[in-house]
Amino acid sequence: MNTLHEGLLQLGFEAGEFSGIQILPIDELEAKMEKYISILQEYNAKFDLINTDGHDEIAVRHILDSLSALPKICSIISGRFASLAEDQLSLADIGSGAGLPGIPLASALPQFHFTLIERMTKRCGFLNHCAAELGLKNVTVEENQAERLEQKLFDLCAFRAFRPLEKKMAKVLLRILKDGGCLCAYKAKKANIIEEMEALPQKPKYEIFPLVVPFLTENAGTEEERERNLVVIEK
Ligand SMILES: C[S@@+](CC[C@H](N)C(=O)[O-])C[C@H]1O[C@@H](n2cnc3c(N)ncnc32)[C@H](O)[C@@H]1O
Q: Do you know which NCBIfam families this protein is assigned to (predicted)?
């Protein structure tokens, strides 16, 4: 079985669109993600990027995990940002690391611009290399601390395995959003998310959407991985 291909089918990528937002055809996306997996495997030892080297583990724990939120992200784009032209929408991945979720998302949505924010120089070098190798003309890598970014830069900021959303970091992330923008946080257990959100002093408006990651959430993952959720926080 081709795990990546089967996973993309299970996530509905064959349809070529989610909520009326066109996505890269599944065969092209699969080819890009295969190339990305090879680059991750080649550079992982040198750059200490991700915690696994196996092809299928990378496909499931990183690529399919990142792409599992795409249907929700497309529904946000087609609803919340319906009035914006494609080239006006600005999306970001904060603390991108090896490019997750930013590289899979930017590959699937070539019509939108993504900024990958990462504070470590060598990881930014890796991200620029990936973007060039995958032909991602819609990606800019910015070497910076989230705390040092200007305010009101992005419509939608995604982040995964970044930082706990405590008071200071929530303020930093909401500050870099344009008015009406939203944060999309890839998280694990719902109970922990609620605790994290309820501890924030100025309770932002948020919703939790369960994610199904093929070959992970329903069986093989660790306890932490078996429950995956996307938290959408509004500014
Ligand atoms: C645990 S890694 C996760 C990487 C990736 N998002 C993933 O899911 O695999 C966190 C990344 O965030 C970066 N980072 C941490 N704090 C940051 C900050 N304040 N501004 C920008 N990047 C930051 C780190 O350098 C690291 O690459």
A: rsmG_gidB (TIGR00138)
* CA dist list (Å): 54 to 87, 101, 227: 36, 18, 22
Q: How many CA atoms, within 13 angstroms, populate the side-chain half-sphere of residue 23?
A: 29
For ligand 1, atom 20: residue with the closest CA: 145
Q: Is 181 in the pocket of ligand 1 (CB under 6 A)?
A: no
CB 101 within 8 Å of CB 158: yes
pLDDT in tens, the chain (235 residues): 899 999 999 999 999 999 999 999 999 999 999 999 999 999 998 888 998 889 999 999 999 999 999 999 999 999 999 999 999 999 999 999 999 999 999 999 999 999 999 999 999 999 999 999 999 999 999 999 999 999 999 999 999 999 888 899 999 999 999 999 999 999 999 999 999 999 998 889 999 999 999 999 876 656 666 899 999 999 9
C-beta of residue 105 within 8 angstroms of C-beta of residue 67:
yes
Nearest residue (CA) to ligand 1, atom 14: 95
Domains of the chain: 3-234 (3.40.50.150)
Q: How many of the other CB atoms lie within 10 Å of CB of 143? A: 16
CA of 162 to the centre of ligand 1 (A): 5
Q: Is 148 annotated as a binding residue?
A: no
Distance 233 CA to ligand 1 centre (A): 19
Q: Measured from the CA of 146, which atom of ligand 1 is nearest?
A: 20
The reply, when asked if residue 147 is annotated as ligand binding, is yes
Kindly state if the Cβ of 51 falls inside 6 Å of ligand 1: no
